[in-house]
Structure to design on (747 residues):
């Protein structure tokens, strides 16, 4: 017939079936013919079908036609468009096949097919595996051999562009649309034409795409399948083989796969499920699956599964399932119902995906988030404490400096102001040294100068620096040295720092008139230093955090005790660097505390240690000891430069002071000094470059040189030596140390 629906030809079968002549129907609108005229609804349906076909679509549906007033039959009716050379529809070919007797057989066949699809809905002769973007991973041999293809011919190609579909852009679009729906999680099924034979003949296939979900809940694979429904009988045998192939696929997929009857009874388990649980399908049918669910999850799982069975809605739940060893792991269980044409559930298909790693990562992420929150809080508290502790000594320093500048103080007040300024300056130096030590520890840059040591000597040296603080609070310090031969391998200065920090901490938290007991004893193969006080004690909940940096039991603005909360953290790190351990005990608030440090003993005798604390450096020197000594001083900071100049001039030295490396080189070339004291951090040319240039000059090769700098780390010290300085002194400068060092160099 023509594209507008006028019938131009009719075969004898169609005419004779209704006892019609050609003149009864030819040249007339097809819907008005005797076959259809019994029903306006049928005619309207046919009109719509003709319009669709005229647009180039292949139309097919089942419809009842009239053959006589008493005879009506059901036919499989279709309209095929024929195109001219320019791609326009030239004719429409309507056709129909009597399917009345076939209906019952088809219904039985469909029921048989549904039973055979154990794993995926609509499991057909032709089956494959696709990526979520529709590219071919594998296709079974049945589909490949039908059109004489090898897997290499279609591997990694878009599925819709493979030879099964390339005969029609409309069919390709239909396949692509199905892939998109499946990627969205939908189980897709439709009938379509496909090329399944080498002679390019087409056949109608029942086509489906089943999504396979991964651990993240996203679609990881697509399983396309097609059944040739043009010949159902031949398809039955192929379906059996195809079922075996797809069951094999379920065994290699990492998920546990299972199916259940409409009422929720498990009727299939893949091998991976049975390998994990150690329970067979028969055991599950006898005793149920509740034994593998974690007791804490069982009620939740049972209620959710029952709800899905009753409502027919998808099942999604995370729960812990036990393996054959009784070890529980987290799984994401998903189940979707398969409906028949009447909308009834005929099967449940489910997967269990191991998400233990994801749950562990989630737990770690939550813990890290909590840790970061706590760290930020501690950081804010610490910064507030740092600000307070650094500003506190600045107040008397600046205040007394201003008072001294007026010149109106008598000798007694002047001496008091100088003493207060010095004491608070030392406090600031100690705060900064603690911060620098922690920085070195965190960066792994704190190095030890280890030698055999006598611990009693180390402890006595450290205690001389805290006696005044104890006396100021009338605190009695008792020392008990069980043996004076306890020897360790360590850094004398750092171990003094450990003892000093422990005892200073005890003094800080012990009330006036209290008592501190310091004991050195041997415990197995360790030397143990124990500091016990009668102070305020430590609450049990804070004990685990005593040695953490930046942690203080009291961090509010009303806290009673000062400090940065770094001393005990430094004790722990220094002790661990020496291979030792730290410990603390307290009966609680007001009960005092006992700190202990254990250091591994050594067998070799220790050398006598001199007291190396900077407080013990001689404070009084002979005036004018540097008479006639020419000193070149370099510092870009005028206040520091003036201070150094004044110190050296008072000692009788002839001082040339400059503020840059360039000026220093000019002064050096004019007159060679006996000694150079230089800052390191200076603009344009630093102190390292300056000494390198001076060492390159004939008169500067062996010249004594001191680096006086705020770069106080061990790495900075070594770098200054490597650059050419013989001595390194950290700012702020201790005048006795500076004078002693100069004396050593010029002798």
């Amino acid at each position: 017939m023509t594209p507008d629906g006028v019938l131009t030809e009719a075969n004898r079968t169609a005419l004779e079936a209704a006892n019609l002549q050609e003149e009864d129907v030819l040249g007339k609108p097809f819907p008005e013919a005797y076959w259809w005229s019994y029903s306006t609804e049928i005619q309207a349906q046919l009109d719509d079908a003709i319009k669709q076909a005229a647009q180039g679509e292949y139309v097919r549906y089942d419809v009842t036609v009239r053959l006589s007033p008493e005879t009506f039959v059901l036919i499989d009716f279709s309209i095929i468009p024929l195109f001219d050379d320019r791609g326009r529809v030239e004719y429409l070919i309507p056709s129909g096949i009597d399917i009345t007797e076939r209906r019952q057989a088809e219904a039985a066949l469909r029921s048989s097919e549904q039973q055979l699809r154990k794993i995926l809905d609509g499991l057909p002769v032709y089956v494959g595996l696709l990526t979520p973007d529709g590219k071919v991973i594998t296709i079974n041999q049945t589909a490949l051999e039908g059109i004489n293809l090898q897997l290499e011919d279609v591997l990694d190609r878009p599925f819709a562009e493979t030879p099964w579909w390339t005969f029609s852009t409309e069919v390709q679009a239909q396949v692509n649309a199905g892939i998109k729906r499946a990627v969205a999680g939908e189980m897709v099924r439709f009938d379509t034409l496909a090329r399944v034979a080498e002679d390019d003949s087409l056949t109608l296939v029942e086509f489906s795409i089943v999504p396979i979900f991964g651990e993240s809940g996203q679609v990881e694979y697509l399983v396309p399948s097609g059944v040739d429904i043009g010949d159902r009988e031949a398809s039955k045998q192929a379906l059996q083989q195809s079922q075996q192939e797809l069951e094999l696929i379920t065994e290699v997929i990492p998920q546990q796969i299972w199916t259940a009857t409409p009422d929720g009874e498990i009727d299939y388990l893949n091998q991976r499920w049975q390998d994990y649980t150690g329970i067979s399908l028969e055991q599950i049918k006898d005793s149920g699956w509740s034994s593998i669910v974690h007791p804490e999850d069982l009620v939740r799982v049972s209620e959710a599964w029952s709800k899905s069975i009753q409502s027919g809605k998808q099942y999604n739940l995370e729960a812990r399932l036990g393996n054959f060893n009784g070890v529980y792991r987290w799984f994401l269980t998903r189940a979707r119902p398969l409906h028949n044409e009447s909308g009834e559930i005929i099967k449940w298909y489910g997967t269990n995906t191991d998400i233990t790693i994801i749950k562990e990562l989630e737990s770690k992420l939550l813990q890290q988030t909590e840790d970061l929150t706590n760290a930020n809080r501690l950081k804010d508290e610490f910064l507030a404490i740092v600000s307070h502790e650094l500003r506190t000594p600045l107040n008397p320093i600046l205040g007394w400096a201003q008072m001294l500048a007026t010149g109106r103080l008598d000798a007694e007040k002047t001496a008091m102001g100088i003493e207060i300024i010095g004491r608070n300056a030392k406090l600031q130096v100690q705060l900064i040294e603690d911060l620098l030590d922690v920085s070195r520890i965190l960066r792994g840059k704190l190095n030890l100068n280890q030698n055999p040591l006598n611990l009693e000597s180390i402890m006595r040296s450290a205690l001389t620096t805290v006696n005044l603080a104890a006396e100021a609070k009338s605190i009695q310090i008792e020392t008990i040295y069980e043996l004076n031969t306890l020897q360790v391998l360590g850094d004398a200065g750092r171990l003094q720092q450990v003892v000093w920090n422990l005892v200073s901490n005890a003094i800080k938290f012990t009330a006036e008139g209290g008592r501190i007991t310091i004991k050195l004893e041997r415990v197995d193969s360790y030397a143990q230093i124990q500091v016990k006080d009668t102070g305020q004690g430590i609450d049990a909940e804070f004990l685990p955090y005593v040695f953490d940096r930046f942690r203080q039991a009291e961090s509010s603005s009303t806290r009673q005790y000062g400090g940065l909360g770094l001393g005990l953290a430094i004790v722990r790190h220094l002790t661990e660097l020496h291979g030792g351990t730290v410990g603390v005990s307290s009966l609680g608030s007001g009960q005092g505390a006992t700190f202990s440090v254990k250091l591994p003993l050594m067998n070799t005798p220790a050398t006598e240690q001199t007291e190396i604390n900077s407080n013990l450096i001689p404070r009084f020197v002979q005036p004018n000891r540097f008479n006639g000594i020419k000193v070149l001083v370099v510092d870009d900071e005028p206040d520091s430069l003036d201070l150094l100049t004044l110190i050296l001039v008072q000692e009788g030295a002839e001082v040339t002071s400059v503020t840059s490396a360039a000026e220093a080189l000019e002064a050096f070339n004019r007159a060679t000094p006996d000694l150079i004291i230089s800052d390191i951090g200076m603009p344009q040319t630093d102190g390292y470059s300056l000494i390198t240039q001076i060492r390159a000059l004939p008169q500067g090769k062996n010249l004594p040189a001191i680096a006086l700098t705020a770069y106080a780390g061990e790495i900075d010290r070594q770098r200054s030596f490597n650059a050419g300085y013989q001595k390194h002194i950290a700012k702020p400068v201790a005048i006795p140390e500076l004078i002693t060092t100069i004396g050593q160099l010029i002798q």
About this structure: Residues 112-124, 553-562, 604-621 have pLDDT under 50 and may be disordered. The first strand starts at residue 59 and ends at 68. The first helix runs from residue 12 to 17.
